[in-house]
TrEMBL record, chains A, B:
<dbReference type="InterPro" id="IPR002577">
    <property type="entry name" value="HTH_HxlR"/>
</dbReference>
<dbReference type="InterPro" id="IPR036388">
    <property type="entry name" value="WH-like_DNA-bd_sf"/>
</dbReference>
<dbReference type="GO" id="GO:0003677">
    <property type="term" value="F:DNA binding"/>
</dbReference>
<keyword id="KW-0804">Transcription</keyword>
<keyword id="KW-0805">Transcription regulation</keyword>
<protein>
    <submittedName>
        <fullName>Transcriptional regulator</fullName>
    </submittedName>
</protein>
<keyword id="KW-0238">DNA-binding</keyword>
<feature type="domain" description="HTH hxlR-type">
    <location>
        <begin position="7"/>
        <end position="105"/>
    </location>
</feature>
<dbReference type="InterPro" id="IPR036390">
    <property type="entry name" value="WH_DNA-bd_sf"/>
</dbReference>
<dbReference type="Pfam" id="PF01638">
    <property type="entry name" value="HxlR"/>
</dbReference>
Length: 108, 108
DNA sequence: CAGTATCCAATGCGATACTG
DNA sequence: CAGTATCGCATTGGATACTG
């Protein structure tokens, strides 16, 4: 991050930056997911980008990464308390998008 | 836009894309602003980028652009009804950012 | 399964200068 | 005042192949 924000919205957007973090947050909202499950949940994302986004979100304290030592490997991602609070704050935005899907998709 | 969204949040984020649209929306929330006023309100943005973002938001139906024929030129930007509805949906996110400013700024 | 490693393309963004 | 025109770098994202 390393910047100063002019308002809360500014800061929130910086944390949510990029095309995918919102979706990842949303997908983890229901409960923990393994890497592969998450990749399927966030349709269209590449492995590389998913990892990058997850690492950033871990770094921001939004996501917790838990490694279960076993074969085959199992890694679970979940929201932290902080992540859940952001998730809740995003809910109205999600509803807005839901309500206006038609209109948004019609934008040239 | 020209894509299909997997959920409302996805769609909303597509509309809000980029680093500045949230701030512009927020700045116009209080009422109409002229180009120059807006440029000062959204501190740090370049003229070029501000125009680009405004055009996109006009195109999305979020912002209305009104030209007053006079010398010197006067152009006012305001939120449409659609823009105001999005603004309202973003409010909780703005509050979240406000409440967590310290923490967000501390992210490495 | 859960990642890394490369490489490449797109585009976002910033700075600056100029104009009706 | 309200834009346009250029230029160029930095970041982001995508495709694919490989590994512990």
């Amino acid at each position: 991050m390393k910047r100063t924000y002019t308002c809360g919205l500014d800061a929130a957007i910086a944390v949510m930056g990029g095309k995918w973090k919102g979706l990842i947050l949303f997908s983890l909202g229901e409960g923990p997911l393994r890497f592969g499950e998450l990749r399927r949940a966030v349709a269209g994302i590449s492995e590389r980008v998913l990892i990058l986004q997850l690492r950033e979100m871990e770094n921001s304290g939004l996501v917790h990464r838990e490694v279960h030592q076993q074969v085959p490997p199992k890694v679970e991602y979940s929201l932290t308390e902080f992540g859940r609070s952001l998730n809740a704050a995003m809910a109205p935005l999600g509803e807005w998008g839901e309500d206006n899907l038609q209109r948004i998709e019609a934008i040239p």
